[in-house]
């Protein structure tokens, strides 16, 4: 059995609990151990980021923090990612299909990553053949994904030998992958078990004493899912796992542990946070003992912290290639991205209800207009938008009254296309009702789903929810059995964000037009949906 966070691993539960309590009180300091174990002790440092999403503008800070970790334990540091390194990225990286981010990872020396859902934004083949191509130097991990020819560059785990210690990194992606991927992509992805059970399976194999199937002294789990979901999993990560890094929800989370005491840490997003931990290892294989300690006294290093941990940090010489890469990417982005699209008077701001309604309506109108410009969507009558697909806080992000290509694509950075599907009138009514949500005080707010401005409805509210008594499209009443062609992004129309009513439709078609482009074309045309052909 491997050791667990902030204590030793012992086979007797009572001993485990005693040492866990002692280690907690000591806030990460070493628990006293037998002299033989101390004599054999090696220290390995792990630095982890998650959900970077191509935010190369933070690359210099990440490089500085990784270099600080390497100075802390020279030659014995491994830098890893817990997924979503690419995808949903700001314009300078996205416009080059995240090539700048992959190149930056190479400069950082990042060679291990769990596969996140956004690595699949452009499809399985794109992930396998381009993102996970061996020449990028990253071992991509997801033990719960069924291995097929399309995933030939995906692994369950990878090993690193550092300071005489064999460290296994075992990866997994969220169990809820189907809710965050378009159905057109998900058809090529099959989860063979839960993330936790898959990681346990691999950890057990690497800890069974059989050198022929691989043995590890330390097992580190990289799970692209929320720290609390992992901590509360009904199966639970087992005692062969020493440290767990999580992601997916863009949160800074510490203080969680597996039932055996291994720390579970989630390091925020966008390169704003780095987790850095020391593993103090004695013994080897299934008899190894591992203690986890925060390298710099706290689990997470945050970019917002004003005080540097030590004077040494001020003298770090970071790799100038990171700065050069960002400068080149920004120059390329400026040429194509800082092109004005339209002047706007609306705030289109997500921070208040009026701005959210205006923004969601605008995106839905743009979807309708974009569909009507294609042969597949020429007969579209209603546009929808899901707020969860919008990345930035405002469309006119700098507030100068002009929307640029870059601002539009940054807001709609996810790799969705515009799509259409035919629903009956009853389901359209149900979706229109779902644009409303109520808060804990029972007050109803209209911002859960965007609906195009050509739709009007007679709505009543009650304790039972929202009822659409009558619905009109372009002033024409709709009956429940009437077929209606609706449009929105491909993720939404395949049931994304829980809007399963779209799955009742018929004749789903992807128009092949990026949903960000529908907004750009719509604004350039003056912001009025063109008439049906």
Automatic annotation (TrEMBL):
SUPFAM superfamilies tied to this protein: 5'-nucleotidase (syn. UDP-sugar hydrolase), C-terminal domain, Metallo-dependent phosphatases
Domain of life: Bacteria
Keywords: Hydrolase, Nucleotide-binding, Signal
InterPro entries hit by this protein: 5'-Nucleotdase_C (IPR008334), 5'-Nucleotdase_C_sf (IPR036907), 5_nucleotidase/apyrase (IPR006179), Calcineurin-like_PHP (IPR004843), EF_hand_dom (IPR002048), Metallo-depent_PP-like (IPR029052)
Signal peptide: none
GO CC terms, sorted: outer membrane-bounded periplasmic space
One term of GO molecular function: UDP-sugar diphosphatase activity
Residue span(s) of domain EF-hand: 393-418
GO terms, biological process: nucleotide catabolic process
Protein family membership: Belongs to the 5'-nucleotidase family.
The protein's name: 5'-nucleotidase
Organism expressing this protein natively: Bifidobacterium tissieri
């Amino acid at each position: 059995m491997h050791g667990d966070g902030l204590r030793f691993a012992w086979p007797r539960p009572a001993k485990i609990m005693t040492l866990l309590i002692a280690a907690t009180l000591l806030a990460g300091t070493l628990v006293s151990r037998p002299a033989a174990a101390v004599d054999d002790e090696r220290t390995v440092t792990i630095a982890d980021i998650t959900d970077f999403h191509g935010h190369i503008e933070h690359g210099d800070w990440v490089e500085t923090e990784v270099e600080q970790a390497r100075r802390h334990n020279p030659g014995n540091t491994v830098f890893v990612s817990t997924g979503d390194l690419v995808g949903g990225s700001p314009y300078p990286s996205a416009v080059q299909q995240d090539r700048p981010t992959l190149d930056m990872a190479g400069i950082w020396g990042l060679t291990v990553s769990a596969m996140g859902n956004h690595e699949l934004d452009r499809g399985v083949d794109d992930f396998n053949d381009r993102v996970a191509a061996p020449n990028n130097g990253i071992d991509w991990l997801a033990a719960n994904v069924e291995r097929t020819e399309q995933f030939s560059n995906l692994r369950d785990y990878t090993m690193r030998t550092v300071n005489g210690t064999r460290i296994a990194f075992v990866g997994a992606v969220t169990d809820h992958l189907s809710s965050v991927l378009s159905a057109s992509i998900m058809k090529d992805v099959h989860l063979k078990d839960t993330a936790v059970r898959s990681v346990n399976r691999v950890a057990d194999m690497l800890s069974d004493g059989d050198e022929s199937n691989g043995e590890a002294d330390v097992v580190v789990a990289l799970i692209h899912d929320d720290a609390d979901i992992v901590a509360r999993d009904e199966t639970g990560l087992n005692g062969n796992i020493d440290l767990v890094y999580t992601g997916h929800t863009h949160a800074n989370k510490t203080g969680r542990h597996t039932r055996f005491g291994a720390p579970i840490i989630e390091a925020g997003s966008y390169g704003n946070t780095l987790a850095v931990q020391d593993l103090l290892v004695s013994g080897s294989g299934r008899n190894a003992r591992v203690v986890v300690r925060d390298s710099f006294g706290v689990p997470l290093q945050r970019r917002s912290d004003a005080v540097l941990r030590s004077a040494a940090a001020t003298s770090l010489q970071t790799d100038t290639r990171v700065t050069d890469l960002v400068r080149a990417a920004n120059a390329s982005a400026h040429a194509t991205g800082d092109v004005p699209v339209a002047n706007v008077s609306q705030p289109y701001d997500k921070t208040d209800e009026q701005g959210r309604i205006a923004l969601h309506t605008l995106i839905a109108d743009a979807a309708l207009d974009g569909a009507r410009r294609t042969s597949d969507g020429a007969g579209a009558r209603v546009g929808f938008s899901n707020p969860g697909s919008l990345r930035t806080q405002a469309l006119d992000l700098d507030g100068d009254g002009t929307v640029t290509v870059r601002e539009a694509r940054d807001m709609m950075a996810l790799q969705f296309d515009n799509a259409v599907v035919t629903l009956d009138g009853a389901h359209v009514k149900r979706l229109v009702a779902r644009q409303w949500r109520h808060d804990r005080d029972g007050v109803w707010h209209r911002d859960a789903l965007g609906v195009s401005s050509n739709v009007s409805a007679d709505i009543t509210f009650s304790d039972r929810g929202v009822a659409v008594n009558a619905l009109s499209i372009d002033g024409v009443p709709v009956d429940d059995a009437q077929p209606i062609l609706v449009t929105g992004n491909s993720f939404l129309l395949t049931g994304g964000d829980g809007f399963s009513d779209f799955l009742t439709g018929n004749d789903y078609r992807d128009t092949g037009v990026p949903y960000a482009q529908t907004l750009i074309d719509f604004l350039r045309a003056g912001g009025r949906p063109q008439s049906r052909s």
